[in-house]
């Protein structure tokens, strides 16, 4: 039985559609976590500058607000979706690892009182790498570039030591905006316009 | 050329399942824009060829059909793509 159709085109188009279909909530999660992170760390920056050292624990508010919101978004997404790609699983696994690393690391660094040395630059690095991996899976170049920029800011933030360490907090705000909110908004736009 | 895969609808199903862990009947119908009858027939053909595994749960309107590509199916799709590429590169 011989059929007349472009088989390679059919395969490529189907795979592209499946990849797009599998990430309806991913872009919103980027905006959610990016906005919360930017907001909380901006607040933390100003409070630390004003001498309130307890503000170093303000980050706990991010998962407290973010996790229930994410749960609602994922539940809604799951009701609408019937599938998950290997790529989207990889992305999810990475972000779970990054979130655990940030949460456990943040708590340990906080109790040991050494968070100003490496915690904040590591957060920037993990977020940047996460956006890079997500961009690679989605084949979304802007997200790849934003992720690389976030990771580069993270590496640069390691230089902010001593009296300058408070500025690491501001680096997280920039990374949250550059590597999470911006690509999230742009990806959202590109999906809606069918690019 | 593999005659099982050289059919547009069957190829769409295989390409989708190759990207996914699994997919249910509703999603495959929505993705391929095929009729339920045609999709059922093509899923059966692919299952008979050993390219996919179909699991059904429940009965009637509440039934749920989930499809998953087998390793034989993954190999067949890879061979099919390679055959096409070598044909076009000649």
Q: Give the SSE string of chain B.
A: HEHHEEH
Indicate the proportion of strand residues of chain A: under 5%
Instruction: Please state roughly what percent of the residues of chain B sit in beta strands, choosing from under 5%, 5-15%, 15-25%, 25-35%, 35-45% or over 45%.
Output: 15-25%
Tell me the distance between the termini of chain A: 35 Å
In total, the number of domains of chain B comes to: 1
Mean pLDDT score of chain B, rounded? 90
Find the CATH topology of chain B. Arc Repressor Mutant, subunit A
| Rg measurement of chain A, Å | 19 Å
CATH architecture identity of chain B: Orthogonal Bundle
Number of helices of chain A: 7
Unreliable segments of chain A (pLDDT under 50, ≥5 consecutive)? Answer: none
> Quick one: how many beta strands of chain A?
1
Number of helices, counting only DSSP H or I runs of 4 residues or more of chain B = 4
Report the mean per-residue pLDDT of chain A as an integer: 83
The chain-level structural class of chain A is: mainly alpha
Fourth CATH level, the homologous superfamily of chain B: Winged helix-like DNA-binding domain superfamily/Winged helix DNA-binding domain
Main sheet strand line-up of chain B: 1-3-2
